[in-house]
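Q: Could you fold this chain for me?
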Amino acid sequence: MQGFYNGKTDKWIPDPFTKYKHHPDAAKHQLISFIKSGIRIVGYIWLPINIIVAAAILLVSEIIGIYEELV
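A: Sure. Below is the predicted structure, expressed as structure tokens.
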């Protein structure tokens, strides 16, 4: 951790110019990935049955994929 120690207040002050990275939750990411993959499989199964329904299901899986990257 970067920063400096303030001797007057006896506190560690983090460097405001250091960017802290968000560390993803691997278990939650994996769970959401499996759910997304299952929804994609269902969407591809629907392709020969009804292309509109399949497109909607695949769109939902892509939205879940965006959420997956934010976890």
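A (continued): The CA atoms of residues 29 and 69 lie 8 Å apart.
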